[in-house]
Amino acid sequence: MDRLFPARPWIxxxxxxxxxxxxxxIQRGHDPGRGLWALPGGMVDLGETARAAAAREARExxxxxxxxxxxxxxxxxxxxxxxxxxEYHNVIVDFLATPTGGSPRHGDDxxxxxxxxxxxxxxxxxxxxxxxxxxxxxxxSFRPVx
Length: 146
Description:
globular; alpha+beta; 7-stranded mixed β-sheet; Nucleoside Triphosphate Pyrophosphohydrolase
C-alpha cells in the first residue's frame, strides 16, 4: 500500500525515552521535516504489535534497547493535497520508554540525537504536531519555534 494518497490510515509509533527527567530527541535528516527535532519512531509493520514496533524503532533510531511502558498519547497527522484529497494520514501511538541497554547513537535517517530538559526543548525547532504531546507530558506550555 502506498503511503501517499492512501486508501486508509497508516499506524505509526513514537517513543518518549526519558532518563533523569530529560527526553531523548532525534534531529530529522530527511524530509519531511529535515532539521526538525522529533521523537524516535516510525511505522508499525504488518503482524507487529505497536509496543514491539516502538522497541524496534527505538533501537533502529537511537541504538538503545528500551522497556516500552505506558501509552501516553494518540494523535493523527493528516495532510491534504491542494485539491483536497488526503495526501497522507498517520495515526501515531506514543509510548513512554526507559533505556535498558545499548549506546546512544543516531540512525541513518537522523542528523543528531540528544537528551533535552523541558526548558531546552522549548527552544528547539519541532513539528507542530509535537507540541500537544509535550504539553501533556511535561504539564506546561511550549511556544512554537519558527
